[in-house]
């Protein structure tokens, strides 16, 4: 193509556009990688420290939604200006993704200089930005830092290290920064592999649902079961939920997995007409509008009466987005299912919500129950929760009952329901059938 064909845009201009981001005029990923590779192979740089910072605007999507895309562009441009002001002329600042920037700082000298630059970036970037509408945006920036030659010696490796460090910083919370550490590679790749395995587990039916008895505290009659998931991993064996539910939550896979749990739990009790079932619902399932419809569809297809299903929810659901939570809770209540507050006493415990949210039951966290025998404080907390439940007309369930004396204390204080190893461990459906048959024989 000749210059004339290209109209007003000279070849240098199309090259510029191919290597720069139009919103901030910063170099893009391509140019950044070229620059970094060049710096790493330059003989002058070979004996000096080079630092790569990967920065991410934590709440950018929220700004875009709240203030509109042109305000979003303004925030990006201002962030770019602030970063440029912190670094030296010969350092490179690039925008590599929607809300991600990379700084390549060459010849930084020593770790102290890197620390200094980190602090400058943090204070410049976590400061309010005034918008043309008069509104103010409060950005929070996470930062991951990798150093050459310490962490990696090639461009791709170094950027990857900075990105892993950024993931670590994000996990620590908005506005934080983190240096790359060797074990991040193992941890992240472990997490990624497990996430991949988790996707496969759904299709290849590797989950197992166990059922733990819930009994009337006074008569010890079996009233229902709590469904507890396990993952029968082909290489790692039977995994407890703590080993994979957090990963399922981060990746969103907890939504299809949660649906599987609901269906399996309801299907099981459809064959056990005298029992109720409770199912744990993750905060992530709550963020998804489809929860109410999913529960409704599962109840209908398994022909289980809604009052036989209880959903166990933790306080974090209410903290995250109380208004939305109330809407979903009301929708679930409308279906006729029971709702209980799980792990009660461990969360943020602003008790006000207990009057606003339609809970049927409180489950006292097992930590308090476990300490009942020997701790006056635990006893006082358990008694207070029992009193609160009575006053608000909610049932109280004690979980983690392991000894006869814990059971005796709970009975003396008129706890409604008990659950724990003393009454029965989580068991397969088969074992549950045997458990029920045994009790029939005994009574
Ligand atoms: P959770 O809801 O508090 O469940 C009770 C946990 O206490 C279970 O652990 C159970 O095995 C254990 N437990 C019951 N009785 C006793 C006892 O007497 N002593 C002791 N030391 N422990 C007892 P598990 O099955 O490992 O589950 C851990 C957590 O994982 C659950 O805590 C729940 O938050 C979550 N979880 C389990 N299944 C699911 C699920 O299907 N979906 C979701 N989202 N979360 C689940
Ligand atoms: Ca539970
Ligand atoms: Ca619990």
Q: How do the strands line up in the largest sheet?
A: 8-9-11-12-13-14-15-16
For the biggest sheet, the summary is:
8 strands, mixed, barrel
Tell me the number of structural domains: 2
CATH topology of the largest domain: TIM Barrel
Number of strands: 16
- Give the DSSP E fraction (strand runs of 2 or more residues): 15-25%
CATH architecture of the largest domain: Alpha-Beta Barrel
| Rg | 28 Å
Bound molecules: ligand C2E, calcium ion
Kindly, what is the distance between the CA atoms of the first and last residues, rounded to a whole number of angstroms? Answer: 92 Å
- CATH class identity of the largest domain: Alpha Beta
Percentage of residues in helical conformation: 40-55%
The general outline is elongated
Task: Explain what the structure shows.
By secondary structure, the protein is of the alpha/beta class. The chain has 2 domains: 3-182, Alpha-Beta Plaits (2-Layer Sandwich), CATH 3.30.70.270; 191-442, EAL domain (TIM Barrel), CATH 3.20.20.450. The protein is 49% helix and 20% strand. It is built from 18 helices and 16 strands. An 8-stranded mixed barrel has the order 8-9-11-12-13-14-15-16, surrounded by 5 helices. Strands 2-3-1-6-7 form a 5-stranded mixed sheet, sandwiched between helices. Strand 13, helix 14 (353-356) and strand 14 (361-364) form a beta-alpha-beta unit. Helix 3 (60-67) crosses helix 4 (69-86) and helix 7 (182-203) crosses helix 8 (241-251). The longest helix has 22 residues, at 182-203. It is elongated and about 90 Å long. Mean pLDDT is 90; it is low at 1-7. Ligand C2E is lined by residues 212, 228-229, 240-242, 245, 254, 258, 261, 280, 282, 312, 342-343, 366, 399-402, 420-421, 426. Its EC number is 2.7.7.65, 3.1.4.52. Pfam families: EAL, GGDEF. Residues 48-182 form the GGDEF domain. It comes from Xanthobacter oligotrophicus. GO terms for molecular function: cyclic-guanylate-specific phosphodiesterase activity; diguanylate cyclase activity.
